[in-house]
Amino acid sequence: MNYSNSQRAGVILYLTALILGAYPENIRKDTLDKLEKLESYFYQPEIQFDITIDFRRFFLEALKIAFEYAVYKIGEGYLEDPRAKDIQNYLKSAIDGKFKKECAEFSGVELLPKEFRGILKNAKKVNAHLLMINSDAENKLVAEVLLFMEPALSFMVVLSDDASKYYNPKSHMDEIIEIKTYAKSV
């Protein structure tokens, strides 16, 4: 419903008089009671926009983390692996700025499989990252990179096509990296 300026002014004058006591007490009380019972509808503006996320950039970060972790845990001998050399070349291309406009595809990096992401629901309140290196069903050496224990930021990276060169099931290649937060004292 559209109101003219004079109608708006009349309503404002009426409510002001009502609140300030220019009307008898019973009329004022009845009107104020009606106002309290009146259902209000607030317009909550909604902002919508389209966003494009290039997951290859996230994959690039996961690849870098997994590669550095593999070198740290396995040692420099890992750098001679054919897959390690491919990863090094890919990361060097990124460092050289070749992916500024568009990040190139790199095989063997993907989001953590759904069956594993479901387990993370129980770890949502854990303030940490988790890195693991192990052998998969095809004897590939893989790293799981779980950032903030968040399923959307959890990745699996193939580090080598032959896990038997580097992986010993009896050795533990996993790290829990606690995220330290500091509260400001007041």
Automatic annotation (TrEMBL):
- Superkingdom, taxonomy of origin: Bacteria
Identification of the protein by name: Uncharacterized protein
- Species of the source: Anaerostipes hominis
